[in-house]
Amino acid sequence: xxxxxxxxxxxxxxxxxxxxxxxxxxxxxxxxxxxxxxxxxxxxxxxxxxxxxxxxxxxxxxxxxxxxxxxxxxxxxxxxxxxxxxxxxxxxxxxxxxxxxxxxxxxxxxxxxxxxxxxxxxxxxxxxxxxxxxxxxxxxxxxxxxxxxxxxxxxxxxxxxxxxxxxxxxxxxxxxxxxxxxxxxxxxxxxxxxxxxxxxxxxxxxxxxxxxxxxxxxxxxxxxxxxxxxxxxxxxxxxxxxxxxxxxxx
Length: 250
What we know:
Layout: E1 5-8, H1 13-30, E2 34-37, H2 46-56, E3 59-64, H3 67-72, H4 74-84, E4 88-91, H5 101-117, E5 122-126, E6 135-136, E7 139-140, H6 141-145, E8 155-157, H7 160-165, H8 170-174, E9 183-186, E10 188-189, E11 197-198, H9 208-216, E12 221-224, H10 233-249
Parallel strand pairs: 1-2, 1-12, 2-3, 3-4, 4-5, 5-8, 9-12
Antiparallel strand pairs: 6-7, 10-11
């Protein structure tokens, strides 16, 4: 089952600026079998990146694509998804000026229209904590965007850290998205007042029941992300990888 776990490349964004191909090679050596495409510099040709992934036998666990590209550059987004052999496209973030009722309504319409026009792909939305702060028709913005109604085509990519940061229980929260979440983000939270990002197994979030839920509920990829690391992010990812191995072996 370890092959279902991957790394969000945003974790290694600074290292990728120096040498993306070395980053991918080092992740493969560590034991990871997939990466989620994100934070790629324009200096890297997607064809060359896709070729390197094939050489290393690294799968693409979806792509994070900024909203402006989803709105104005879908032709190239689809071309890249084809190169990376993934059908999962994720809207990763909304800038502060877009965190309004009107903007959330626009985003919901846009993401649904992409699926309507390209039914062979899946479109998900990745949460932070700010979507819990806006109410739309009696729902938080994240629940509005991810409403599990048949008419809503937007799938969930829940980040369990941000759910906890918003004061909600991650295991309870994700239950609404059973079989509507092909990818989940695993991220731990430090056991201190700062409640910042932590390597898996070192903080306050119990990921074991989340993985057990995921195996019954349609999760295809468990993507590990750590937005900031206390030192070398490869060290943090090694800690997370070792923890996953222990969990799966127990």
